[in-house]
Amino acid sequence: MKKRTQLVHGGTKRSQWGELSEAIFLTQGFAYDSAEQAEARFIQSGPDEYIYARYGNPTVRMFEERIALLEGAEDGFATASGMAAVNGALVSMLKAGDHVVSARALFGSCLYILETILPRFGVEVTFVDGADLDQWTAALRPDTKAVFFESMSNPTLELVDIAGVSALAHTVGATVVVDNVFSTPVYSKAIEQGADVVVYSATKHIDGQGRTLGGVILGTQEFIRKTVEPYMKHTGGSMSPFTAWVMLKGLETIDLRVRAQTSTALAIAEAVSGHDKLHQVIYPGLPEHPQHGLMLRQIGKGGTMVSLDLSGGKEAAFRFLNALEIVLISNNLGDTKSIVTHPATTTHQRLSPEQRASLGISDGLVRLSVGIEDPDDLVADILQALAQA
Question: Same domain for 44 and 24?
Fold first, then answer.
């Protein structure tokens, strides 16, 4: 089946009632026919055999199977949030004395895990410029256990060469973990290009309608079931059945939504390119973007996010945000509603001015997550707000 068909039908499990929409199994536990059956299930659970919702659930399993089909992964584990997925993917495989190489351009919470949490437990982390393959080469060591990066960074939309970094990491036996949120599962070819593990905040484009928190870790069946599952089920980061049902409904329309959002994002980037109030328009879908060629090879489209760097710094950025009439101010992204945020004072505010500058996060930078509203309305709203900036 092609992707759009998988998104509607993949992983479906129907009960004896033959329900059309996926069933929500809102139960925390499961009954056994006998003590012997309970004993056997705790020793080795088979397909469609469940013990406790923290370990697995039929609705959650449908979501895991459907997103794994979409990504081209063998298996997946659904988590309570995107950050639970990032933390689970890394901490489940690492121990004191291990070495990790990470791109330094990361979402603030991801950076907190790499900078603060992992070193606290004896894991050494080396940061590199994610776009520079020479820096990856220099940082990798025989004892490097994993590499981590966002395939498209938040909020400066810098791409990391998945195939190039994966080839380098595999020469030392390191596991490649890719946070693929901005690339989206619609355009993702991360596993095909060499990634071993892909994580998503399902809160973003997968739900895409501002309803629930969720995440997912995708990889080989051995990694998911033998490394991730034991860690996640004992530390409590699993997804709720209701959330999984919402995510299943989101997957049915994600292809339609993301393609429409991407088309509008390109229209906005083209409309404001060269505007006299802007120092820079950052959108990989523009031919002048320095990584446009890599974008074409890696995901094929520029994505749903546009970053604008206003010439007047924070004051101009705030005037722009406050003048918008359709686009909403929030720190979420990947929603059907268009959303704008000022990273320096929100998502990345805990970083020092020097750290933000090194990542290209200026006081004038705003991150726009493009929704599914009429493209002409969004362009008009952004242009009138820029006029007041």
Answer: yes
